[in-house]
Design brief:
This protein is of the alpha+beta class. 26% of the residues lie in helices and 43% in strands. A seven-stranded antiparallel β-sheet has the order 1-7-6-5-4-3-2.
């Protein structure tokens, strides 16, 4: 299974970074390649993306700095991407974003996702600059 991880360090406290990134509503502000628009349907989030509308769900653990982002065409089949927020000091925070190439992700789509993750992490860094 292929994987890619992109990282950045920002001069902002961990709690502030976590609060921003763990809010589904902020996804379009930094995930500009994948999320073209965020909508709610029956109280559930969906993202309009270049590959179609997908359900979006976040699972978070603020103490551990973990944000698992699930996306999929159905709520029953969603694949995760992983954000890790790490405090280096009071005003220095690391962000790690990891994707895996799941069995149903073809190589061309994977290549596009690998380019997008670089842009998305760059957007996170810019947002906190």
């Amino acid at each position: 299974m292929n994987s890619i991880t992109e990282t950045c360090v920002v001069s902002v406290p961990k709690d502030k970074v976590f609060k921003f990134l763990s809010s589904v509503e902020n996804l379009p502000k930094w995930s500009t390649q994948f999320v073209q628009k965020l909508i709610t349907t029956d109280g559930k989030y969906k993202a309009v993306t270049p590959i179609g509308e997908v359900f979006i769900r976040f699972e978070t653990n603020p103490n551990a700095g973990l944000i698992d982002i699930y996306a999929g065409f159905t709520e029953q089949y969603m694949t995760p991407a992983y954000l890790r927020i790490i405090s280096f000091s009071e005003n220095s925070t690391g962000v790690m974003f990891t994707f895996f190439q799941w069995d149903d992700t073809d190589d061309m789509t994977w290549k596009i996702f690998c380019e997008w993750i670089k842009i998305e992490v760059g957007n996170i860094k810019k947002y906190f600059s």
